[in-house]
Amino acid sequence: MANYIDEKFYSLIGEFERNDFYQIYSHMVKKFRQIPKVTQSSLESYFNRYNFWGSFNISEENFEVFFKKAKIFKENSQDYIWLYENLADYQSKYLLYAILNNFYNFDFNSLKNATENVFLQYFDLNLLPKCKNEIFVDVGTYVGDTVIDFIKSYGQDSYEKIYCYDITDKILDTAKNNLSTYKNIEFRNKAVSNIAGITAVSENTFSASANKTDSIEQNGIQVESIKLDDDIQDKITLIKMDIEGGEQDAIRGSFRHIREDLPKMFLSVYHNNIDLIEIPKMINNITPQYNFYLRYYGGCVYPTEIVLVCLPKTEEECY
Predict the structure, then answer these.
(1) Is the residue at 240 inside a domain?
(2) 176: Cβ–Cβ under 8 A, 6 or more apart, which residues?
(3) Containing domain of residue 88, as a range?
(4) Segment 237-286, tens digit of pLDDT
(5) For residue 294, is it within any domain?
(6) Looking at residue 168, which CATH number applies to its domain?
(7) Is residue 121 part of a domain?
(8) CA–CA separation, 139 vs 270, rounded Å?
């Protein structure tokens, strides 16, 4: 018998399946127009500042962000069902419903209720209560905040080595300074991807945290691109990725480590309109030996900071 979370989720998916694309899109525009004007303006500014999800201009009635999401809702409803049914706890299932309900109905309350307020970002102690002798690869280190939170959560004796990757050399210098008191941390000014070579860095004018790689050279800034499978020979036990939409390519370049090492993984899945469903499928295609969880660390107006947690199944769960 379905519980209320199941009922909410399947009812929402049922709307996607019953309605045509234009009805879904029109519904989203209508709901958007019903929220306060100041919130509308804030969202417009946010969408254009980061430009991950499509263009957006209220005065010109350009709602490409909604157009793209409506298209995915209509064409990928079965993928959302697959993800829902492969999430390992109801906190994750409710979060998936809350994310879709926010996109579709601009429901801020369900997203607020799904926000993780107990544990530090990425490191839910209910999911991963202890860490020991970890080889931790932090892809998208930024100023070292995730490493600091990892050590706060599990202690300085929780790891053997930490690899910190970032594409912005000045930001990596800040991370080196912030992490200078900790042992066995190696910093690599490299882009983690699915190819080896040289790539360009596109700098975000609002925040260096949103810097990303780009095939078009901008401002003459370049960085070495590597595959994690080539760049690290150690057995990896834990991976975090937050690289502004480059996560799928980074996963492709980490195929061997994922398949053979089965590292615990914390993967950002919000930098475009499709990662939320594509990245879990990618991991499952590499190996079916993972349980999936979703955790949320963002605000209640628009869902960012969505993390897919991939934990290796126990021997009993594999059979």
Answers:
(1) yes
(2) 144, 187
(3) 4-113
(4) 999 999 988 999 999 999 999 999 999 999 999 999 999 999 999 999 99
(5) no
(6) 3.40.50.150
(7) no
(8) 16
The domain total for the chain is 2
Q: Model confidence over 101-119: pLDDT tens digits?
A: 999 999 999 999 999 999 9
State how far the Cα of 65 lies from the Cα of 51, in Å rounded to an integer.
Answer: 9
Is there a contact between 107 and 101 (Cβ–Cβ < 8 Å)? yes
Answer whether residue 193 is part of any domain: yes
Partners of 163 in the β-ladder: 137, 186
175-197: per-residue pLDDT in tens? Answer: 999 999 999 999 999 999 999 99
Residue holding tokens 């912005």? Answer: 168
Listed in order, strand segments (DSSP E) in the chain are: 134-139, 159-165, 185-188, 190-192, 197-202, 212-214, 222-226, 238-241, 264-268, 290-296, 306-312
Report the predicted TM-score, pTM, of the whole model to 2 decimal places: 0.94
* Token pair belonging to 51: 């430009």
Within 13 Å, how many C-alpha atoms sit on residue 177's CB side? 7
The three-state secondary structure class of 37 is helix
Closest CA to 228 of 196, 275, 262: 196
Residue 66's nearest CA partner among 15, 38, 28 is 28
